[in-house]
Amino acid sequence: MRYLTAGESHGPGLTVIIEGLPAGLPLTAEEINESLRLRQGGYGRGRRMQIEKDQVKITAGVRHGKTIGSPVSFFVENRDWKHWTDIMGIEPIDEDEAKDLRRVVTRPRPGHADLNGGIKYGHRDLRNVLERSSARETAARVAVGAVAKILLKHLGIELASHVVEIGGVKAEAQSISEVEKIREIADQSPVRCLDEEAAQKMMNLIDETKKNGNSIGGVVEVIATGMPPGVGSHVHYDRKLDAKIAGAVVSINAFKGVEFGIGFEAARRPGSEVHDEILWNEEQGYFRKTNRLGGFEGGMTTGMPIVVRGVMKPIPTLYKPLTSVDIETKEPFKASVERSDACAVPAASVVCEHVVAWELARALSEQFYSDQMDKMKEQIDEFRRYAREF
Ligand SMILES: Cc1cc2nc3c(=O)[nH]c(=O)nc-3n(C[C@H](O)[C@H](O)[C@H](O)COP(=O)(O)O)c2cc1C
Ligand SMILES: C=C(O[C@@H]1CC(C(=O)O)=C[C@@H](OP(=O)(O)O)[C@H]1O)C(=O)O
């Protein structure tokens, strides 16, 4: 399975093509739109989210509510486009006219893609970079992940995400293990945090940060249950599933780190307090006494819940900006800024969940028969039985 996305943040919209989905997967726009709605929420976002109402228009690959094996495509409209039709126009225009219309950006923001993208593609108008480096693209990735989540659900695999830290305010570790419960609480919380007291502190901190013209990041956690053991492979670097997930998480805009299970804490503990003892019983087959390694050993799933955490840096666009250099004058400046999010960690937790879902679905489709949904399920169920008795 693979996918491509296209679309500029203030262009007409986002286009997605997904290739390799099994035929016979029930798929409706409503289910995908629910994921898009969750991504748009979250305390700390800027005014853009009040303009957009993200919804997919399914344009190919689905007939009477089910996939037919051909590429599935979506279009997500940018409602903001109507305010940008001149600046982001697609038809060629006269160069003199263009100067007035383009709202040329020559002042790169520290922490964004502006300067590097300008150098790489030779754009003296940095808008040509920021339009695509914008996290607007994560709407497309969530639509893709929503399809993956629907596929996984048919296979008995569920995911949820929540926020564990914002700007240094940490949520108390929770003992909730059911994914459904985590999802329920996170979806109700404005910051997608399971700890109510910490959630309030996070919101206060976001308010204060916004007032000071600053931004903050945080840590999100994704949990996936029901994956069979042995998915991925130890035999080659590019077949290790934990590595693929790590790459996918860090590919999300502003994500700078990833950990599984206890993660970096493993560096501080002896082996006896890191590795998970192996047990067996008739009902479950093999399982681990603890899950400190977060569901992976040797690049393969252990069958225990997958626990992935991602670190998001603070948003680069600051209302009280840092010093940068104008690429035309080479003079230092402190840019005046337009709208921006002050904190997008809650929204990003939804993105992270969907990105992980895609990697899990793709790994299953590579390892098992995946042309037909029913046969895929049969084969995976059979593999689960085999692994239990192994
Ligand atoms: C959901 C979400 C919303 C974001 N909103 C903004 C924003 O409003 N302003 C901004 O400057 N960056 C925002 N970012 C972060 C930038 O897109 C990101 O920092 C930029 O693409 C540069 O990539 P890098 O940080 O991965 O190096 C957001 C990221 C996510 C995931
Ligand atoms: C559009 C989205 O996020 C955008 C991500 C983003 C950035 O620089 O990454 C900058 C902002 O764009 P704008 O200047 O248009 O408000 C965010 O709103 C979205 O999440 O759908």
From TrEMBL:
Cofactor binding, per record: Reduced FMN (FMNH(2)).
Which residues does NADP(+) bind?
39, 45
Q: Which CDD domains match?
A: Chorismate_synthase
What pathway is it annotated to?
A: Metabolic intermediate biosynthesis; chorismate biosynthesis; chorismate from D-erythrose 4-phosphate and phosphoenolpyruvate: step 7/7
What does the record give as the reaction this protein catalyses?
5-O-(1-carboxyvinyl)-3-phosphoshikimate = chorismate + phosphate
> Which cofactors is this protein said to need?
FMNH2
Top-tier EC class: lyase
Per the record, the similarity remark reads: Belongs to the chorismate synthase family.
Its biological purpose is as follows: This reaction introduces a second double bond into the aromatic ring system.
Quaternary structure (record): Homotetramer.
Q: What is this protein called?
A: Chorismate synthase
Species the sequence originates in:
Pallidibacillus pasinlerensis
